Amino acid sequence: MEKENSTKDNHHDLDAIYLFNEGTLYDSYTTLGCNKVDKGYKFTVWAPHAQAVYLIGDFNAWSEHDEMELIEDTGFFTLTDERAEEGHHYKYKIIQADGTSAYKVDPYAYEFEVRPKDASVVKDLPNKKWSDGLWMANRKRREIYNRPLNIYEVHLSSWKHHEDGSWYSIKDLENELIPYVKEMGYTHIEFMPLMEHPLDASWGYQATGFYALSSKFGTIEDFQDFVEAAHQANIGVIMDWVPGHFNRNSYALAYYDGTPQFEYADKNRADNLGWGTLNFDLGKSQVRSFLISNALFWIEQFHLDGLRVDAVSNMLYLDYDIGEWTPNDEGTNINKEGVEFIQLLNKKVFERHPDVLMMAEESTAWEKVTHPVHEGGLGFNYKWNMGWMNDTLRFFEMDPLDRKNHFNLITFSFMYTFNENYLLPFSHDEVVHGKKSLMHKMFGDRYNQFAGLRTLETYRMMHPGKKLEFMGSEYGQFLEWRFDEGLEWNNLEDPANAKHLEFTKQLNHFYKEHRALWELDHHPAGIEILDADNPEESVLYFIRQGNNPRDFLIVLCNFVPVERQHVRIGLPYKGQYEEVWNTEMEQLGGTWTQSQGVLKTETIPAHGKDYSTEVILPALSVVVLKPKRVYGVKK
Asked: Which of 132, 230, 241, 361 has its CA 20 to 30 A from that of 301?
């Protein structure tokens, strides 16, 4: 029985339905889901093996009699209800393939009830009049590869808590996080996933509503306003995006019509045992329409500056998970459909938005992650350098006496650093699950821990590649990150933590002010190694170079707590150099009260150069020299 105020729609967009089923409908959220029409709202859902679908909600007193119309043999069900109003709750009652009933959310809902409730909410997609035109225009003009990129990674609900223990909303963060990030000198904020998810312990990586901002954070409008405010403050916004797998709760996408619909039919490929989730069937055309539309939805509706694509390795390999796995038709472990999906995703995103960031969290040695698809690459423009991260952190956790025996952990990255467009991350994954905070990883007593952390952070900033740091590391929080509590901001009552916050602020601004640290990040001309063959003393010297020959910095790293005096450093030009950075200066947390000032060259060859000077390398430090007045530099 059908209510008189709900109607079956005879005017269907069959072209859009055809494209969705072909896997090429990249704005599918304007066809599926709940969309406003002249009278009421039109509800459309894809459930190809359902026997019937009923629309139930506040607008029909949750009656189970409003049967939706099956549009020919497309797998689409639709119904227009004139009584539906914005703010009403609703679900779909699916008569599944085997005749059993299941109550499901709308996969395309823009809003959900606040947890633990789970109904979809009737919501108009905002038609925002944006005021970030200058930022968006500049983004189109600037080449991302030769610009500074220093990201502050944030888990929204644990950056800060109110005094009563409640988490900050998006609105709260707009007022506090954006000014903080600007003052600290970061260029971008990256949020861990913001989509609707039922379990805080998943950190947002197990989504149930891919087109909705999590109800605990605020509304779509709130997040649009946040991004706009960030752009007006000259801060970019990136979000973690999870296209590989989804939450297996029965009310959401899992076996939506009673059959493998969004997930693989092969249980070995569908079940993600390690994460307790279900893997998307990336070879299915409709799933491709759903996911690529979703990437473009977040980029276009929220003016996001990029997506960090989570768990790329899980999409590339059939045996990435624990347990049994099914080989491909050639008997190997490569997920061919996953590779094709990733390439298609990046092609379609960059066709519309060549100026955004598509960053791969890919933890293996897969080749050409950041090479164009037409060259056989995956098509991302950045890859997290997990190898560098793991090697570097392992080195800094060691007893300094043993570092000379493992010096290759520091130098090996120079062998491959230009194979991909790399970003150097110290992310949330490295400060949780017993891995200890960055501060706690450092060897020695408290003073040496801070000295080690200053050395680690400066070395990362001097190394080729863009940067990312997880919240709390900027002031040396000792405790591990805990997703259900705010950061330990009271640490800043300790002068050592306060000085480390000032150190990070000055380092971030130093990075932005020196073109040598980002103009040639992805070109071998951007670095010249002076000495990487002194493991006995555990020192490393190199030059970072910008486009202009006069834009260069001499970087001197001492990775052990032993002061080195009378150190002769080869220099490319005759003249004067000045010390512009020293991690042991008192205002940064060290003990030095006076810098080494201006240093004159001598005509004494060193490190393959005709000129050199002598410096002191403080214990466990990084010293940076800059040309002050030099001769013979080509313009």
From this structure: 361
